[in-house]
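Q: Could you predict the 3D structure of Bifunctional glutamine synthetase adenylyltransferase/adenylyl-removing enzyme?
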Amino acid sequence: MSEPWSCLPLPLAEDVAASWAAVFPEGLPGWLLEDACISAEVIAQALARSLFLRQTLERHPEQVRTLLESRTLSEPTTPDYLQARCNEYLADVTDEPGLQGALRRFRRETQFRIIWRDLMRWADLPETMAATSAFAEVCIQGALNWLHDAACEQYGTPWGIDPVSGSEAPQSLIVIGMGKLGGFELNVSSDIDLIFAFPGKGETRGGQRSLDNQQFFIRLGQRLIQALDQITADGFVFRVDMRLRPYGQSGALALSFAALETYYQDQGRDWERYAMVKARVVAGDQKAGQVLMESLRPFVYRRYIDFSAFESLRSMKAMISREVRRQGLENNIKLGSGGIREIEFVVQAFQLIRGGRDRELQQRELLVILKELESLELLPPQVINELREAYIFLRNLEHALQGMEDKQTQLLPEDELSRARVALSMGFDDWQSCQQVLTQHREKVATHFGNIIATEEDEESSKSSLEEGWFELWLAEVDEVSDTEWLEKHGYEDPGGSLSLLASLRDSRTVQTMQTQGRKRLNQFMPVLLEALAKVERPSETLSRVLQLVEAILRRTAYMVLLLENPGARTQLVKLCSESPWIARQLAEAPLLLDELLNAESLYNPPARDELQDDLRQQMLRISYEDLENQMESLRHFKRAHTLRVAASELKGTLPLMKVSDYLTWIAEVVLDHVVDLAFSNLVARHGYPGRADGAANATDFAVIGYGKLGGIELGYTSDLDLVFVHNADPGLATDGDKPIDNVVFYTRLGQRIVHILNAQTPSGQLYEVDMRLRPSGKSGLLVSTLQAFGKYQRNDAWTWEHQALARARGVAGCSETLAAFEAIRHDILCQSRDKDKLRQEVVEMREKMRANLGTAESRREETFHIKHDAGGIVDMEFMVQYLMLAWCEEHPELTRWSDNIRQMEELGRVGVLPVEDAEKLREAYIALRSNIHRRALQNLNSQVAGDAFADERRYIRSVWQKIMVG
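A: Sure. Here are the predicted structure tokens for Bifunctional glutamine synthetase adenylyltransferase/adenylyl-removing enzyme:
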């Protein structure tokens, strides 16, 4: 008699044979064979396809037996069945640990059933998606019911106006499911995207003390997340992602209906419209929830055919392409080219564009919408069929990948055994056959995606014909004399040097060992590039800069294709590299920045702070906070991309100096905001929230203070960040998690993590260099101070130079209450009464020390002028302003409003401390000197210029210094 695994392919047969005795040490149990559809051979097939099924049978056989007694595996998994089983599991729960344990045991049982039926193909795709979605709903509702009752016992019952009846009534939390949960399309190992809402304002009744409704529902929401998301000895139920809520990670955990409606009406972004297409109420008061969903419908679906959506669709297409290139996601069947996301995107595009008029499109399930698109004749039947078949294949493949180990992944496996498991689950004899069909589906999807969401550049497929001479030059098909003459004819100022550079590239080992396809692309790209260079000033010099980029992308020739197919991007590349070696180096270090060149309009119009924040939120939505490496890489790309846009705008003249610094400072502030959220969330996941005397949670009580150029809103392209960290929590309390630590330890670790995220060198470089030496007591001081200790130090122990630094300080990220408290301390310190003569002497002495250490040596002053540190330079002006601020804030407290030198000068003139003429001339000189530093930075030059530069400005600055600081 043959063994049960004898019909399996060889590597799987050996694998199952090796594990059989461990799974069934006493032989195959009879209860497992009571289902007529299950045999030893079927069990061997299941063990071959899934390590999760194997481990569950090995470690929890009694639970599998209970599962089979409740319903055989050959019967479908229905919502009613799942509800009944959930009720049984939760029937005896008496406390939250018990609730968590019951839900996690229920998950193990349900996952076994769903994954078995899916991988054995006893269930089709619609059943698997519906069962997984229904399982999530009954878990959320079951947990919510129990936790709501427990919260009401503790805090009382929340009351307010019922949105259905219009009269007062008890309120409940409304849980909105987004993404695949909202669309009844959850995969077998997915996270769940949720938004929490409640009907309206009010307070709890019947508790020991009343709570505001929002506080009640925030606490309830936190406990619900913990019940589902927290990893215990029994595992977890679902990873919960709340970042799709208004304002993302920084937004309140639960919002009223009115607040949600106002947000989406006033601030809703295009990507949030896409997210809301699938939104539906999955738990809580369904009737009240429907009132909310109806109020949000106009935000999602316009009443007319919304052709304006095409522009945002193009942007989202570009974002998808960037993400694939950035993260190397070609083997990701969801995010890669021709993957699941592209099918979803096509369908949602039609929903948003036409859903307002064609209400048939206002549904959630993708396969249903595809039928409607065919009925409405919006897409040809062949396209519909190919998208449908590809979607079913890709989703089944996704489940095969995830069902192997009950693991959230969409990456194709690389090891032989995993590939064999997937191929078997998908009904193929081998991996090659499976991959061949997968490739066919992905190619079709990519084609339809490109055709439907085409950009103007995509449509301009015709390429201008090149003169043959450029090909002959690159391929070295003619003699050197002819090549030299050709380059001279086309404006190359150093043809010999250019030919030498091209020969070095051609003969390099990297080029010589390129694959055929890559070499073909290089040979297409270089002649086009050489022709483009002929249109800028000093083509030879620009070529030397651009070749840094070419060398960087030799192994990633998709970037060459991008530049070949996008003449506009190619033009911007050579133009920017011609104007700035700094930009050329940035592009060479991070070729992904080439994506920024695709849209000249956005390249030369960098976004304002709110738009920056929104852009970062969108980029980070799908990266787990636990995935610190990807978070850090994405932050670095975000900073580089937006800094490039600022630099391009400055070179073009669309941004004046003041705006350049504003934008560079905004980029840093937005990054810091996210880094604080990221670091705080990671620590909270491990230790809980810092304790507060009022018992409130979900507040950081932490603030980042910017000093120097960041505080003064004067960041340059290479500026570091002078930071000070403060918190306003009770140092005597501890966090409220399972592994509590003292608040002091929590905030110290928070500061350390923030510095690490900013400072660490990754493949994309460093985010910002951080300088913490301005904190109280400098290097020997605590990394994070309490506000009380910070204020005490400033009043009693700080040196004059530290008060000078405080004049340029401001809060840049963190808790708004803590930031306001810092500002009050700053105001008080700056307004202290001071002896003006003593103050002047101390400031002058400090300035002389700085000039001696950092300024130009006396022997070289005639030939060199250091714009910042020499007499008549920027630092002289800064010290004068700081002296005047410290001397006169007591009499003019309004001076403390600003932290930047320009507005401080203007304010000093306005209140009469500084003659208006001096204020205006100093301002003009300050801008002139700083503008020069900015421009030199873009040329990779330092702050030292010729000795006779800025003679008039320096003379005037020295005269004002003499008048104010010497007398």
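Q: Anything worth pointing out?
A: The two ends are 109 Å apart (CA to CA).
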